[in-house]
Structures are given as structure tokens and as C-alpha cells.
Amino acid sequence: MNTSVNIGINQADRLEITQGLNKLLADTYSLYLKTHSFHWNVTGPMFNTLHLMFETQYTELATAVDIIAERVRTLGERALGSYSGYANVTSIKEDNGVNDAMQMLLELLDGQETIIRSARALYPLVNQANDEATADLLTQRIQLHEKTAWMLRSMLAS
To answer: What's the pTM?
Structure first.
């Protein structure tokens, strides 16, 4: 029984796209962990606002991880699924014990923008391969991360 993937995207392109998606997955999961940690550890006068905002953000990131991983699987490759696998490819710096709420906001903003750049970097290949489904996923991710970055930036404005 032949179960090879035959969806109109050649194997070389599928492999390269899934490598990029696995990087996006690693970045998204790493930002999820950092955001969740900040949710637990935020203190100060903005505690309630930030605690709730971080919860909204990490909940969305948890959903995104599943969507990205399932796209990797749809393209016929294995989705990363370990801390060490994520650590090898992510560009997100992990939480190193930050306790200052403003520093948390800055680091989360940097993480959101990192993911935007990771997603954007995949467009040329995805477009060349006529992979509309991955292009749609990337568009949705970029739109959401840009909105979240705007909100974080607004919290930092003085």
C-alpha cells in the first residue's frame, strides 16, 4: 500500500516548508512557556491586568502550537515535540527569572515580533510551492502576532 504524500507539492519543497514550520512551532511553544511563566510570576500595581492579559496570550499560543504541528503532519513530516528539539531551533530567549513587569512586556513584545519574522520568512518558499494552506496559516499567525505586539507596545507607551 502506497501512503506517500501526493498533494501537489514536491517532496523537497514539503521538507523545506516543514523545517520552517517546525521553527515556527518551536518559537511559538517557547513563547507559550515564557508567557505562562510571566503569568504566574508577574507582580506590582498592574498585576491583575497583566495576569489576565498573559493568560489570554498563552492560551492562544497553546492553540497555535496544535495548528502548526498539525500542518507539519499534513505535509507528511514529523512535528517537533520535545524541549530539546525546540531549544535547538527557537530564536525565543527563555525566561531567566525576570520579575519586573515592564521587562516582561518588553520580552514578550520581542518574542511576538520574532515569531512574525519567522512566519514572514517562509512566504517566498510557500508561494513558490503553491502551498496556499500554509500561506493561509502564516497570514493568520502574522495578523494575530502583529495585533498582540501592538497591544504590548501600547502597554509600554508612556
So the answer is: 0.95
SS3 106: helix
Please check whether residue 64 is in contact with residue 141, taking contact to mean a CB–CB distance below 8 angstroms: yes
113 belongs to a structural domain? yes
Q: Is residue 152 part of a domain?
A: yes
Task: Please tell me the distance from the alpha carbon of residue 34 to that of residue 26, in angstroms, as a whole number.
Answer: 12
Give the range of the structural domain holding residue 31, as residue numbers without chain letter: 11-156
Say how far apart CA 42 and CA 18 lie, in whole Å.
35
- The grid coordinates of residue 42 equal 508577574
C-alpha cell at 131: 502551498
Tally of domains within the chain: 1
Supply the CATH number for residue 62's domain: 1.20.1260.10
Indicate the SS3 state at residue 63: helix
Residue 2 lies in a domain: no
Q: What is the pLDDT along the chain (158 residues), one digit of tens a residue?
A: 667 887 788 999 999 999 999 999 999 999 999 999 999 999 999 999 999 999 999 999 999 999 999 999 999 999 999 999 999 999 999 999 999 999 999 999 999 999 999 999 999 999 999 999 999 999 999 999 999 999 999 999 86
